[in-house]
Design a protein that fits this description.
InterPro entries: ATPase_NBD, HTH_MarR-typ, ROK, WH-like_DNA-bd_sf, WH_DNA-bd_sf. This is ROK family transcriptional regulator. GO terms for molecular function: DNA-binding transcription factor activity. Pfam families: MarR_2 (PF12802), ROK (PF00480). This protein is of the alpha/beta class. It has 14 helices and 15 strands. It has 3 domains: 71 residues, Arc Repressor Mutant, subunit A (Orthogonal Bundle), CATH 1.10.10.10; 140 residues, ATPase, nucleotide binding domain (Nucleotidyltransferase, domain 5); 154 residues, Nucleotidyltransferase, domain 5 (2-Layer Sandwich). A hairpin with a 2-residue loop joins β12 and β13.
Length: 398
């Protein structure tokens, strides 16, 4: 029988450091005494750990607390917006996006570069990504901040345990070690590189942004070249046991439909994604489609309404199975929300059994096409906050 060994001093400090930073992140403005009360740690331990976190630019003093009544006011503590930033990267079919997000979740810098990535080799595309990352790192250096972690959003199946991109049908990629490639190509050897499905990371960004009157259970769906969905249950992202969840675009909705890049026929994204809508509307690009919709052109309106039918068919299966009360339209769908929401709601009302007693909300994402790259950066920030001691040690600030 193997007996567990007692926790060493470093393990205890690592755990307590995360407790303290987590308490400050959850309730900005807490004093050291407030942190001690919230975590159960002694005031002396909290004071030592706060000093350690402050030396690493993770927290900062905001001055005396504001409160009424007599007694000594403690010093307010908050996450330091000038501390380590999360670097977000999105590798999409038609663009590469990057952004820098501070510890408080604010986007400090972002850039989107059009790129024809479809059917290009991973090496060629990742070379473009490395240049975009280099520009982001240069911007961070110009601002005097360090990058504490990187998150990468990709349009495909990402194995949660390894970070391997197992398959990206719309890119034509299979079994690509994105973290290793970017560490080697983009100067990210010293930071953790997290890779996730773009739809799941978009849903995570939506959850972090809030803005829907406290909705904590929803499906975030975005339709660009492909269609992805991220599922949030009880305020937590659920991406499946292996990280392969969210592939709404490959739900079969028509047995006689066109062949999909995944090899099947009648997948949702061949009938309701951006390219299908543009083709049906005879519009060359999204700005042209939006102009036609705003002018009330029948063909454009009909194209969007036609996409609502298969989209509602696929989403109704999710809602009937999981009893989720809201759908958030993101990506291109967020821009189409004024014309897509009502026909989609009608389709869901017809198909979701519980709709008569629990009407389904069809909401518009405020993040739109920025959600995936912001979610990627936010995932990197989350890692720093969840394990600050490891960041401190890696950065040489221990």
């Amino acid at each position: 029988m193997i007996h567990p060994r007692p926790a060493g001093q470093h393990t205890v400090r690592r755990h307590n450091c995360a407790l303290v930073l987590g308490a400050i992140a959850e309730s900005s403005g807490l004093s050291r005494a407030g942190v001690a009360a919230s975590t159960g740690l002694t005031k002396a331990t909290v004071s030592t750990l706060v000093d350690r976190l402050a030396a690493a630019s993770l927290v900062r003093d905001e001055g005396p607390q504001r409160r009424d009544g007599p007694g000594r006011r403690g010093t307010s503590l908050s996450l330091n917006p000038d501390g380590p930033h999360g670097l977000g990267v999105e590798i999409a079919v038609d663009h590469v996006a990057t952004c820098l997000v501070d510890l408080t979740g604010q986007v400090r810098w972002s850039r989107v570069s059009p790129a024809a990535n479809r059917a290009q080799s991973p090496g060629r595309v990742l070379g473009r990504v490395a240049k975009a990352v280099a520009a982001a790192l240069a911007e961070a250096a110009r601002r005097g901040v360090v990058v504490g972690g990187a998150g990468v959003a990709v349009p495909g199946l990402v194995e949660a345990s390894t970070g391997l991109l197992r398959r990206a049908p719309n890119l034509g990629w299979q079994d690509v070690d994105v973290p290793a490639e970017l560490r080697a190509r983009a100067g990210l050897e010293s930071v953790e590189v997290l890779v996730g499905n773009e739809a799941n990371l978009a849903a995570y960004a939506e959850l972090q942004a809030g803005g829907h009157d406290g909705v904590r259970d929803f499906v975030h769906v975005s339709g660009e070249i492909g269609i992805g969905a991220g599922l949030v249950l009880g305020g937590e992202l659920y991406d499946g046991t292996r990280g392969f969840g969210g592939e709404l675009g490959h739900f079969p909705v028509s047995s006689r439909g066109p062949e999909c890049s995944c090899g099947a026929r009648g997948c949702l994204e061949r009938l309701a994604a951006q390219e299908a809508i543009l083709e049906r509307a005879a519009a060359p690009d999204l700005p042209s489609l939006l102009g036609a919709l705003e002018s009330g052109e029948r063909k454009a309106v009909a194209a969007v309404r036609a996409a609502a039918r298969p989209l509602g068919t696929a989403l109704s299966s999710v809602l009937n199975l999981l009893d989720v009360p809201a759908v958030v339209l993101g990506g291109t769908y967020a821009r189409l929300h004024p014309w897509l929401a009502e026909p989609l709601r009608e389709e869901l009302t017809r198909r979701v059994l519980g709709a008569p007693w629990s009407p389904i909300d069809v909401l518009c994402s405020p993040l739109g096409t920025e959600a995936a790259v912001r979610g990627a950066a936010a995932s990197a920030v989350r890692t720093i906050v969840a394990d600050p001691d490891t960041f401190i040690a890696a950065s040489g600030r221990a």
